[in-house]
Every structure is written in C-alpha cells, then in structure tokens.
Amino acid sequence: MTAPLTPPHQPSSNDPWQTPPKWGGSGGPGGPGVLAESEGENDRRSDLRRAAAVTLLVTVSGVVLGLLWAWLAPKVPLISDGTAVYLSDSEGEEAIGADGTFVLLALACGAVSAALVFWFQRRGGIALVVGLALGGLLGSLVAWRLGVWLGPNQDVVAHARAVGKGVVFDAPLRLRAKGAALLVWSLGAMAVHLGLTALFGPRDPEPEWGAFPGWSAGGPVPGAGPAAGPAAPGAGVPPDGS
C-alpha cells in the first residue's frame, strides 16, 4: 500500500516554499506596517494644516504692527525755503527712531505670537516653527507697507509746495534698514518658541528597566556564579573517606 498523496489544491502546511498569507502580516495590506504608515501620513497632514493656519493668522496680525508703527514712530520734521527741502532739526534722531520703533514692536509681536502658538499647540514640530517664521516675515511686510501708506505723504516736493515756504511738515515714514528689520519678528518668534519648548515642552518618557525572569528580591543575580551557601552533608569529603 502507498500513502495517500496531498491533493494539489491543498498545499502541505510543512512546505517551506509556501507563500505566506498577505493579510495580518507586518508587510501585507492591513498589517501593522501599513497602519503605522497611514498614521504617519495623517500626522504629517495635520502638522501642515496647523502650520498653514499659524502662517495665515500671524500674517494677518501684521496689520496690528503696521497700525502701531504708524502711530508710535517719531515724525521727521522738514522745512522748505521755496527751492529745496531741509531737515528742520539737523541734530534730531527722529530719522533712526522709526527703524528702532519698528524693531521693538516686531520683537514684541514675535514674542506674543510665539507664546500663543506654544499655548495652543504644545506638541510643536518643525512645520509649526516654519509656519511661525514665515508668518512673521509676511506680517512684517504687511506692517511695513501699511505703515508707509498710513504715514505722511510720500511725495515730498508736492507736500512742500502744498504747505508753503517756511512751514514745517512731516517727512514720509520710511524703514531704512529693511533687510534686518523685516526679519526681527521671525527671529524673535523662533527664539521665544524654542525657549518655551525647552522649558515647558513635553518630555520623552524615561525608559523602564524591567526585572529579569525568575529574579526576585534577594534572589541570585543573573550571570553570577552559583550562590554560596552551607555545604550539604558529605560535601567535600573524598570518596575514600580520608
């Protein structure tokens, strides 16, 4: 008699070349690997949405900086003699006061925006920081253009002719150190956010040291030799009794 053969449509479970099932495995559809990849993709999309919202809100808040700058910046007095326009006070420091006011206000806006972002988004992330920095730069551009638009007339010659000879009038509001002043909001916001994250951000959990199997309090240390104890009766006695 011969042993029954395995039907061709039912492969043996002991076949080493058998193709593993695609479901339930770490690399198959629906496995842990696919689930982890899907969760990572969802997290990235959520981070990008939060970063876009932060960029938009910070950019819009540049309107506040522009209004404050147009209101608080010192005015530069000018005067005309009918042929040319001169500084009314040649020793005044109002010309650099506009830049200093913008820088101080931008630093304050950067600190406030970073604190608000950290308060509402403790999780943080590089996308959030990039959105905060980009929003600060765009908000500074909005504030600069708005402040110039709300300030005195930009056409100095026409303004001098309108007010007349010997009458003091305000010079246009200008930002002379634009390259540095427009970056202050972004740099200040990133510095404050980094400091708050370092001080009050979430911490990684400490690793837990598990006990070795079979090792209880007072038990032998794994890897050590046999525990020393009282000798058993007859231990150490030669077989010949000497």
Q: Strands of the biggest beta sheet: in what spatial order?
A: 2-1-3
Largest sheet, described in full? 3 strands, antiparallel
How is the quaternary structure best described? single chain
> So how many helices?
7
What structural category arises from helix and sheet content?
mainly alpha
Beta percentage is: under 5%
Low-confidence stretches: 23-28
Q: What is the H-and-E element order?
A: HHEEHHHEHH
Mean pLDDT: 77
Strand tally is 3
Termini separation: 68 Å
What is the helix content? Answer: 40-55%
What's the alpha carbon Rg, rounded to whole Å?
A: 38 Å
Question: What is the general shape?
Answer: elongated
Q: What features would you describe in this structure?
A:
This protein is mainly α and 242 residues long. The protein starts with 31 loop residues before the first helix and ends in a 42-residue tail after the last helix. The chain is built from seven helices and three strands. Helix 4 runs antiparallel to helix 7. It has a domain of 120 residues. About 2% of the residues have low confidence. It has a three-stranded antiparallel β-sheet with strand order 2-1-3, covered by helices on one side.
Quick recap of the structure?
The protein is built from seven helices and three strands. By secondary structure, it is mainly alpha-helical.
Please outline the helices and strands.
Elements: H1 32-60, H2 62-72, E1 77-80, E2 85-87, H3 94-120, H4 126-150, H5 156-163, E3 169-170, H6 178-181, H7 184-200
Antiparallel strand pairs: 1-2, 1-3
Helix pairs in contact: 1-4, 2-3, 2-4, 3-4, 3-7, 4-7
